[in-house]
Design goal:
By secondary structure, this protein is of the alpha+beta class. It has helices spanning 110-120, 137-153, 158-175, 188-207, 214-220, 225-236, 240-258, 263-269, 275-286, 290-297; strands at 20-26, 38-42, 47-54, 56-61, 64-69, 73-76, 82-86, 92-98, 124-125, 129-130, 180-181.
């Protein structure tokens, strides 16, 4: 898939020296997700492995929806567009995120050429799911569970151990014929659809402070404004301009809580030309005025 520059998650996972991250997520009172787990549509260049240990989740992967439940694994390849929603208030899952480049060797032997390089280059990818009913599940689950445990605890030489287990896991996936050719992932039409969507949202997120028209966005994907609106609403359920307003308001929320800039300045910095219109749209979106929002969240 074409790597566009901006629904891209702006988060660093791990460190430059140890680019592997383990994360434990729980929902419920006292957690970061008191009502239910939700991560909005985004993508990143790293590989993400999720292990559902409690509850049911709705995954959207490359604009297709899937349900996962306890015991299921989800594999998100680099640049997969995805969104995750917990279907109950009480859910739990583990996550392992890693940069596939750590698996490469400087010496290009047969295994490097036939397995690792194609995986790192995304010519070979992981299947999106591994479920308890699948062949080889127990063996692969044992490896992945150990990987996640090591990455969460980070004791002693955890990074080297994780790296060795990842190599073992990829070898097993290759041996069992579970690594897929990237052209099995998306049809040409679906890939173009996702690339266009990424381009539009990326452009709005990068240029929200400027004047943006429907024609600007239509030109970006070489279509007319009417087609643009139908295309965008089909994917998001909203119009491009409504999405742009929401994007501007989210940036305004950040400025309201992290700076002391006057509301008029924030209005202009976020692409609104009229402060009355900004306040009206902000209240529609957040249920309060910008001033009230600042007082509540600072």
């Amino acid at each position: 898939m074409h790597p566009d520059s901006s629904l891209k998650e702006n988060v660093t996972h791990g460190t430059e020296q140890n680019p592997i991250t383990g994360i434990h997520f729980e929902t419920g009172p006292g957690t970061d997700f008191p009502d239910h787990f939700f991560v909005a549509r985004h993508w990143h260049p790293t590989v993400e492995i999720l292990y559902i240990t409690k509850g049911t989740y709705l995954f959207e992967i490359n604009l297709e929806e899937y349900h996962l439940s306890e015991g299921d694994f989800c594999f998100l390849n680099g640049e997969d567009l995805h969104q995750i929603t917990g279907m109950e208030p009480d859910t739990r899952h583990e996550v392992l995120i890693f940069d596939s480049r750590i698996l490469e060797f400087t010496y290009h032997d047969e295994w490097q050429e036939s397995v690792l390089s194609p995986f790192v280059d995304k010519r070979k990818i992981l299947p999106h799911f591994l479920r308890p009913t699948d062949e080889h599940y127990e063996e692969l689950r044992t490896v992945l569970a150990q990987l996640m445990k090591l990455s969460l605890e980070q004791k002693n030489e955890w990074y080297v151990s994780c790296k060795l287990l990842l190599l073992h896991f990829i070898n097993r996936m290759h041996e069992y014929g579970l690594l897929l050719s990237s052209d099995q992932n998306l049809s040409a039409g679906d890939e173009l659809k996702i690339v266009r969507y990424k381009s539009l949202v990326s452009y709005m997120e990068q240029h929200y402070s400027r004047s943006i028209t429907l024609q600007n966005l239509a030109d970006l994907i070489s279509c007319n404004p009417q087609y643009l609106c139908r295309f965008f609403r089909e994917i998001t359920g909203t119009s491009p301009m409504q999405y742009l307003i929401s994007c501007r308001i989210e940036h305004a929320c950040t400025l309201l809580t992290e700076t002391t800039s006057p509301i008029l300045s924030i209005c202009l910095d976020c692409g609104f030309e009229n402060v009355s219109y900004f306040i009206r749209k902000f209240k529609q979106n957040k249920g309060c005025t910008p001033k009230e929002y600042r007082n509540r969240h600072r």
